[in-house]
């Protein structure tokens, strides 16, 4: 019987990360999956696709930040400025890395930044979550 090696993950999803708000949890899981895909491609030496995947992650993060900011703004949360600053820092860092021709020199900093962002984002969610549960608006949904 052949034993398969587990694919290394930079970040793992745990049930304790759930916010019990479907749209937010789906976005969080998708972001972690993209980060792990980027990490996997890097480990396999597939540098050609990294920029494309980083830009896809950038788009996912933009959507996620806009979703949460919409909720925070509706309730005039005092967290808006801190949230925007954290979002801008990560998005700008991703753009900076995508501008670098040779991503190899940026990899360790990039992956550490992903881990730090996720940890900080989860901490910020301890303050954000009450606003998520006040949210009564509808998000755009496609109904089959």
Describe the structure.
This protein is an all-alpha fold and 144 residues long. It has a single domain, classed as Four Helix Bundle (Hemerythrin (Met), subunit A) (Up-down Bundle), CATH 1.20.120. Helix content is 66%, strand content 0%. The chain has helices at residues 22-43, 50-74, 80-99, 107-134. The radius of gyration is 17 Å and the shape is globular.
Short synopsis of the structure:
The chain is mostly helical and 144 residues long. The chain has four helices and no strands.
CATH superfamily (homologous) name: Hemerythrin-like
In the CATH scheme, what's the topology name? Four Helix Bundle (Hemerythrin (Met), subunit A)
Oligomerization = single chain
Q: CATH architecture, please? A: Up-down Bundle
Q: What fraction of the residues are assigned to beta strands by DSSP?
A: under 5%
The outline comes out as globular
The total of helices stands at 4
| SS elements, strand count | 0
Which residues form runs of ≥5 with pLDDT under 50?
A: 139-144
Largest sheet: none
The ordered string of helix (H) and strand (E) elements is HHHH
* Count of the separate structural domains: 1
Distance between the termini: 43 Å
Task: Name the average pLDDT.
Answer: 81
Q: Regarding CATH, which class?
A: Mainly Alpha
Helix fraction, binned, reads 55-70%
**Radius of gyration, taken over Cα atoms and rounded to an integer in Å:** 17 Å
